[in-house]
Amino acid sequence: MSAETVDVEVGPHDDEPHGEGMRSRLNWLRAGVLGANDGIVSTAGLVVGVAGATTDRTAIVVAGVAGLVAGAMSMAAGEYVSVSTQRDSEKALLEKERRELHEEPDEELAELAGLYRDKGLDDTTALEVARQLTAHDALRAHADIELGIDPDDLTSAWNAAFASMIAFTLGALLPLLTIAFFPESTRVLVTVASVALALALTGFASARFGYGPAGRAVARNVGGGIFAMVITYAIGTLLGTNL
Q1: I need a labelling partner for 175 at 20 to 30 A (CA). Which of 25, 71, 119, 200 fits?
Q2: What is the 3-class SS of 188-240, one letter each residue?
Q3: 84-143 pLDDT, tens digit each
Q4: 7 SS3 class
Q5: Basic and acidic residues compositional bias: what residue ranges (predicted)?
Q6: pLDDT category of residue 171 using cuts at 50, 70 and 90
Q7: Statement: the pTM of the whole predicted model exceeds 0.85
């Protein structure tokens, strides 16, 4: 019987992100999807609620524009503060690690070897890996396995803020334009339908890029958005009737 030679390709799959690439991708995905979803749902809830209280197109559009601007600024500021705090923490941890490597190199080498032993390497291999990584780039070696940080790729607060602001604005434009340009008899229903479709798309996209189950993400997005619009429309109708 002849033996077949099987070629085995070693290394990560080209279509799968790994390590810092995956963390960076998920951070951007989180900011973009949260921004778009907030823009869609909050603006849709606002304009639908106002539409329940009045048929005045100008009042509805003014409320929607105000909500869009306020929401986009709020998202940008919140993301900037959040990511700035994270970046400050990352810098402080890296500085602490840099100081320890300078003051206690032997202890840090032993710590690094211990971390690799905890991952399943035997004592000899773990120590050899720790020595080689330390010789190559000690700070990066500790930052990676101990802190989960890439010293050359810290999260940018400004990038995150702009991403959230733009995503929120793009999401908010859909319900705003829909309710502004459709006639009074259909604008609420068309807005609800378009928002449901948009939320289904963002839910699917988040699941696709994050390698999660699409059905669950879509159901969460669409269900939450419709619930928000139903509540705000009911409140708007109640207030419009009684005021």
Answers
A1: 25
A2: HHHHHHHHHHHHHHHHHHHHHHHCCCHHHHHHHHHHHHHHHHHHHHHHHHHHH
A3: 998 888 888 889 888 988 888 888 888 888 888 888 888 888 888 889 988 888 888 888
A4: coil
A5: 10-21
A6: very high
A7: no
